[in-house]
Design brief:
Two copies of one chain form a homodimer.
Chain A: H1 5-19, H2 28-33, H3 39-51, E1 55-58, E2 64-67, H4 76-84, H5 101-117, H6 122-129
Antiparallel strand pairs in A: 1-2
Helix pairs in contact in A: 1-3, 1-4, 1-6
The complex binds iron/sulfur cluster (SF4) (2 copies).
The structure holds a DNA duplex (30 and 30 nucleotides).
DNA sequence: CTATTATAGACTCACATTATCTCTAATAGG
DNA sequence: CCTATTAGAGATAATGTGAGTCTATAATAG
């Protein structure tokens, strides 16, 4: 039950794009430079964010990535689900009892967990991140 | 970010042991008979529950598994952590900023998630499960 | 037209989960 | 003491997924 390394790359990148969003597009090579990850691999992850509508991309010279229009609304949940997809963490009732009390209980707790992540905006975290050395 | 199939086996088994806990020990072959899982593999999972102190085992004829003394207190969290271990779902700050705001936020939400699972007692779920056909 | 940049596909590699088989240890009951 | 029964430990294999590379293609600015 772990979030993938790709999700970490995506979140870190979102933080960067948010902090420097006034400076226009940023290329994947610059974004990858801040982390230990290859450009081609990070590119695949960012494409997921594009398809989820969290960022926009422009090919060609001086192109790159930038945040979508109302980027202030993007939450941790948006980014995590864009990369990880939407499968529930416990879903083993296919050919069993679909009203299994165990599954119901775990998914109820998961729902609250996701809702809490849905209240955490990247923009707010980026504001806080300005005060720590690493960013 | 998924709970393993082993965790499902463990939870299902705990439900069975709780429902039939008045009948003494239950062998792993009986417990495996209720699920599509081999006896040797389920045995490995149950050994984790034994080491976590959630159930007790007795080898030899008429042996098997039964719940621990105050079995009424066992929660979903106890079982999940016994099988899955205790790693946080997001932990990518080893050589980075240990006070990373993203990590802090996700782990805060995770803490609430685990605490909620810690309030869900297997005994209560077993009581509800008596009213559904599958169990 | 050319350099630059994102995107897509095929592919490999590493690792954890899942699972089986076999052997050993402990226990009940005769 | 003997034997059937049962849990536990170890080695090993199969499977699947995450992580990562390489190459080719498409789009854009200048
Ligand atoms: S009822 Fe729930 S725990 Fe039991 S086998 Fe079905 S899905 Fe698993
Ligand atoms: S501060 Fe470190 S751990 Fe946090 S997102 Fe950035 S690179 Fe990852």
């Amino acid at each position: 039950m772990k979030l993938s390394k790709s999700t970490h790359y995506a979140l870190h990148t979102m933080l960067h794009l948010t902090i420097s969003h006034a400076e226009g597009h940023t290329s994947v090579s610059k974004l990858a430079g801040h982390q230990q990850v290859s450009t081609t691999y990070l590119s695949k992850i960012l494409t997921k964010l594009v398809k989820a509508g969290l960022i926009v991309s422009v090919p060609g010279a001086n192109g790159g990535y930038k945040l979508k229009a109302n980027w202030q609304e993007t939450t941790l949940l948006d980014v995590i689900q864009a990369v990880e997809g939407l499968p529930p963490i416990f879903d083993y009732c296919e050919d069993h009892n679909p009203s299994c009390i165990i599954q119901q209980s775990i998914q109820k707790a998961e729902k609250n967990f996701l809702e809490e992540l849905g209240t955490m905006k990247i923009a707010d975290l980026a504001e806080d991140a300005r005060n720590v050395p690493h960013h």
